Amino acid sequence: MSVALVGNAPATFEIKSAHLPLVALMLKSSDLGRLAEEFAQRFGDMPDFFDHDPLVIDLHPLNVAEAHALPDFAALQTLLRQYRLTPIAVRGGTIEQTALAAAAGLLSAPDATVQRTPPSVAPTATANPEPVAPASPPPMPGALVIDKPLRSGQQVYARGRDLVVMAMVNPGAEVIADGHIHVYAPLRGKAIAGARGNADARIFALSMAPELISIAGIYRTSEVALPDSVQGKTAQVRLVPGPDGDKLVIDALGT
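^ thats the sequence. predicted structure below, dont judge the formating
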């Protein structure tokens, strides 16, 4: 026999579980001077790239590169806030690092998860394989479409979605997207896809001749000339993981 009991609920509040979308900084060095230089190179001309995003500092890479390093967390927070990031927590640190972070006002978030590109694994045979539905990522909003040429000094950022450009991206212009970038015209400026770490993002162009291409932070500049097989040709750029680190691969299309 089931019995239903009447409960009392507070009239002024409710407590619910919540999931906060965080940006993760994979800290690889305690050299904050070099970190400041590289942040300026990456984001110095994009002052609105971040929008006061909450951030967790992941110390795993630091402890691989510099065992037991003790970063200046107060100075690190000052640097990050200059780029409209809001550090709130650390993860993956030693006891000493976590204590220093706490003294600087950062929480310990050992359970925070960081998205990483899984390695490719060859399928193995099983006696009675059961079908498994592939996990579907949440759908991204519709692509941002730009139908006018982008001149030198202009910048377009497709936050949280793909970017489609129907006209030329001239030298000195910059196109940025958290997803893919499609340029149905010559690409002669800078193209930054997967700007927030999406390693599956790609760059497509009808005429590939960029000043800079970047996917998930891995970049190549025009100082290293593209091979003749792709320079000025219809091509795509993708990121391929390897034993020596991720690398950009450029493929000619339609040949």
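The radius of gyration is 22 Å.
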